[in-house]
Amino acid sequence: MSKYFSKKYALLTPYTPGEQPKDTQYIKLNTNESPFAPPPSVVQAVETEIKRAQLYSDPECTALVKKASEIFGVNTKQILPTNGSDEILNFAFMAFCDKDTPVVFPDISYGFYSVFANLHGIPYKTVPLKSDFSIDYRDYMHANATVVIANPNAPTGLCLPVWQIEEIVKSNPNNVVVIDEAYVDFGGESCIPLIHKYDNLLVTQTFSKSRSLAGARLGLGFACESLLADLNTLKYSTNPYNVNRMTAMAGYTALCENAYFMDNCKVICENREYTANELTKLGFEVLPSKTNFLFVKTDEIGGRKLYEELKKKGVLVRNFTSERIKDYNRVTIGTKEEMEIFLQKTKEILKEQRQ
Ligand SMILES: *Cc1c(COP(=O)(O)O)cnc(C)c1O
After folding, report:
1. Which of 7, 140, 280, 312 is surrounded by the most beta carbons within 10 Å?
2. pLDDT tens digit string along 157-213?
């Protein structure tokens, strides 16, 4: 830390992104990216768009927002595109939390929530998941705080039904409820329709998981007009051109190809069920996932050890250090071929372990 660094950030522990190794060619099952490349139409549109890169992007992302409004069944004033959904989550922490309005989220969830809270000096409280790692929606009713829930949750993969989200939203009329739907396309049910009924609900989605654009950085926020106006105030006070030209075009074209991505999601879900079955046969405990990853453990080998052994064999998964989940690994669902290799290597490791 330099002597110039503001004291208000001195104690900040930044978010640790998953490994993006540059040396070895790993089978990458550690950051929940899609194993499928974007379709040729998206690639082509971006190639054309970069020829106009001397011009600023459209700060309103008009074409993207219009297309998204058709697909998600909302009007154009209820959508805000951002630089990844991380950005809209950041805006939400800035906009709807402060010293007098703390934030609450599950103890096991997306690691960025506590980082944002610390960054903005917002007091936060975590609610322990139940022993089966599920969220009890009643823990968030009448919260008297801003509520942030990933649904489906990460890294557990478990999902709440929309009616339970609605109970949370309904019981917190004086606070905003943020539902992070990064994984909703893999079997969850979106609560976007609830934004027509409640003025305290913000739903976020991302193009990083189901839409093969993690490297393009694109997220969407959905909320009633007044909440979006607040978020826009922060956007225009930070970076009006937060979504670059190529990314806005990639996102627009991707939405025009929605069927391609939804078909890919089906394949991922099939591969997930296959992998879950195979792991169960090998004696793993596998949480029922509605996402593009599995959260798994076995008594035969520690979580960290399995992660390390898989890495030696060229397969990267995600292991967490926090006490409650250190025996688990989060395994992204890739292609069938990738999952076969993962399963094969896992079998080898268990066999070596038994010797
Ligand atoms: C991946 C992820 C995000 C962020 O995605 P972006 O790449 O920033 O759009 C947000 N929330 C959860 C739970 C995620 O897993």
Report:
1. 140
2. 999 999 999 999 999 999 999 999 999 999 999 999 999 999 999 999 999 999 999
Q: State the pLDDT confidence band at 15, using cuts at 50, 70 and 90.
A: very high
Residues having CB closer than 6 A to ligand 1 are 32, 84-86, 110, 150, 154, 180, 182, 206, 208, 214, 219
Q: Is the pLDDT of residue 338 over 90?
A: yes
CATH, domain 40-256, list 3.40.640.10, 3.40.50.150, 3.40.50.300, 3.20.20.70: 3.40.640.10
Distance 185 CA to ligand 1 centre (A): 13
Nearest atom within ligand 1 for CA of residue 31: 1
Query: Which amino acid belongs to residue 173?
Result: P
pLDDT band at 245 (very low <50, low <70, confident <90, very high): very high
For domain 7-36+259-354, is the CATH number 3.40.50.1700? no
Q: DSSP assignment, residue 204? A: E
Full strand arrangement of the beta sheet holding 177-180: 79-82, 219-222, 201-206, 177-180, 146-150, 103-106, 124-127
Mean pLDDT of the chain: 97
Angle at 261 between CA 196 and CA 157, to 5 degrees: 70
d(CA 294, CA 52): 41
Domain ranges of the chain: 7-36+259-354, 40-256
> Would residue 330 be called left, alpha or beta, if left means φ above 0 and alpha means ψ between -120 and 50 degrees?
beta
Instruction: Enumerate residues 6+ apart whose C-beta is below 8 A from 100.
Output: none
Minimum CA distance residue for ligand 1 atom 12: 182
Predicted TM-score (pTM) of this structure: 0.97
Number of Cα atoms under 13 Å in the Cβ half of residue 152: 24
Phi, psi of 23 (to 5 degrees): -80, -80
Distance 205 CA to ligand 1 centre (A): 8
DSSP string, 252-263: HHHHHTHHHHHH
